[in-house]
Amino acid sequence: MRNITLSQAVNEALAEEMRRDETVFIIGEDVAEAGTPFKVLSGLVEEFGTARVVDTPIAEPGFMGLAVGAAMTGSRPVVDLMFGDFIYLIMDQLCNQAAKTHYMSGGKLSVPLVLRTNLGATRRSAAQHSQSLHALVAHIPGLKVALPSSAYEAKGLMKTAIRDNNPVVIFEDKLMYNDKAPVPEEEYLIPFGEANIKREGTDITLIGTSSMVQVCEKAAEMLAAEGISAEVIDPRTIVPLDEKTLIESAKKTSRVIVVDEGHQSFGITGEIAGRINEKAFYHLDAPVLRMGAMDVPVPFSPALEDITVPTPEAVAENARKLMSGEMIHAA
Amino acid sequence: MAKSKTNTEDYLTMYRQMVRIRTFEDNANQLYLSAKMPGLTHMYSGEEAVAVGICEALRVTDKITSTHRGHGHCVAKGAEFKEMFCELLGKEEGYCRGKGGSMHIADQSNGNLGANAIVGGSMGIATGAAFSAKLLGKDDVTVCFFGDGATAQGLMYEVMNMAALWNLPVIYACENNGYSEYTRTDEIAAGSITARAEAFGIEAHQVDGQDVLAVNALTQKLVDRARKGEGPFFMELMTYRYHGHHVGDINREYYRSKEEEKDWKENRDPIIRFRSWLVEEGIASEEDLDAMNAEIKQDAADAVEYALNAKYPDVSEVDMHVYTDIEHALARDTA
Description:
The complex is a heterodimer. By secondary structure, chain A is α/β, with parallel strands linked by helices. Chain A folds into two domains: 3-182, Thiamin diphosphate (ThDP)-binding fold, Pyr/PP domains (Rossmann fold, 3-Layer(aba) Sandwich); 196-329, Rossmann fold (3-Layer(aba) Sandwich), CATH 3.40.50. Chain A is 36% helix and 19% strand. Chain A has twelve helices and 14 strands. Chain A has helices at residues 6-20, 44-48, 60-72, 91-98, 101-104, 134-138, 151-163, 211-225, 243-253, 268-280, 302-305, 312-324; strands spanning 3-5, 24-28, 53-55, 76-80, 114-119, 144-146, 168-173, 180-182, 196-199, 204-208, 230-234, 237-239, 256-263, 289-293. In chain A, helix 8 crosses helix 12 (312-324) and helix 9 (243-253) packs across helix 10 (268-280). The termini of chain A are far apart. Chain B has a single domain, classed as Rossmann fold (3-Layer(aba) Sandwich). In chain B, helix 4 crosses helix 12. The longest helix of chain B has 26 residues, at 8-33. The model of chain B has no long low-confidence stretch (mean pLDDT 95). Chains A and B meet through helix 3, helix 4, helix 5 and helix 9 of A and helix 5 and helix 6 of B.
């Protein structure tokens, strides 16, 4: 199988879906000739023209709201939000309008819209271009949330998102755009709500999202060398969440660490840990551990920024503590 | 009254629709006062010529977006009393199965993309509907209804900019009723309302919103031009809201006088004015119009009675319609 970058994978997904369905269009800042600052969309405007690859003014609420209306009336917009941090600017259109329209209309109106944006720190971009804000939107009923962990997931989840009749928010890890992974030449889709067991294990479960899947895999390698068998699971979508796979793994291994790049408090790690506690309590030999980003704004200085996100070393260290029983008495 | 080329049937339809809105609102107000309606609602009474003058210039396939004060738009775009009262009372047979209520009433069968409880919240949606029409090669026009209060929202300027850049078939219809909730518009809006649109190169008109023929004549021209790709356009419709901000806003002398209200109701009422014109022009007799009023009154009474006795949605519907493809959102996959 060929290897392509995550960026190429997203580009292919969009091109394939735009060829398949003429109602699909891309809208956002510098998406056409510029192809976005990350060059993810390069070449699309040449094939599909400016009517379907639409450069907007710098007006996030405006083009997000426009996309909601377009989605309600027969089009399938893919909104490009240049940085995940800008999601605060579009919260009314995303959470009050897009998320609730189907429900408020008793099922009569729908909003088949994809919001493409990104997450991820350690790019030396400081507090307003580095956040991982997927928990904010996962909190809102009516939105689906996908977190691709490689080029393979990025393509398959994007194609599924575009065909979904609900608003879907996809967060790509902006540090992974140049990472290559095997991606089939032939068409494939990845269904929402199906977790991927990346590595099977028996002693401990490491649940990682997005960029943290790689972190968990590296931690699992380190642990394997020490005789600890770690299972690594990528939920791939957090709404809907494949609770069944996560809970079955928790019951099997009896120990779980949930790793996510969003802030730890009130976030994804706590939600998943809570569900495992509710449904696998008697099978657990240790408390489910949360590892998120530090509850601080993302600092600029590399010396500070690098310690704010979970690392393979930190995950492995916590896994050793859980295995030794240390965490049970930690409190 | 302004001259128009529409025929007798159109005039009577406009009269009927204005009376239907007024009658609907009188009944809705009574439902609130008699504690039969959950929550609050915002009355459109006094502004009927705006919704009717505009919607009578639209096709069924044309779209509108509406506001928290949206019953008038909904009726004018073709909605039925029964489904509307059912929605106001949270009943299963309401337009939104009781999930939206007064502030979210939508009727997609007639192109009403829904009322919006966020002031100015639908401006993006309306502009997007116009974008969609252009992208998909349809000649639908979208009218975005909003109040003077919404002109303070930034979203309006963002989407007017894009609509003007891309010549979208959207008409921004600002219903200037003089009050932004409990505050006079001149206290919250600097400069001219129409100049806001003109700054983007959008042709803007101010029109007497109490004159249904003037509103209709202007809208017909603008809709025809928007259909041909000459949009967007902006209309400021000078009107008045008879009730307070909502039905519970009873004591309002701290922001407007009873004399002012009396003047608008007695001297500028859109229904009284149009009725006099119809009779003077020999289009209808007083008796004809009285009969029409009585028929509408009876329709409304029947619809209210029906809605009061209609059933609520089953509690199992609470987690339905969260997603299009998940029947019950809370029925989680469990281990």
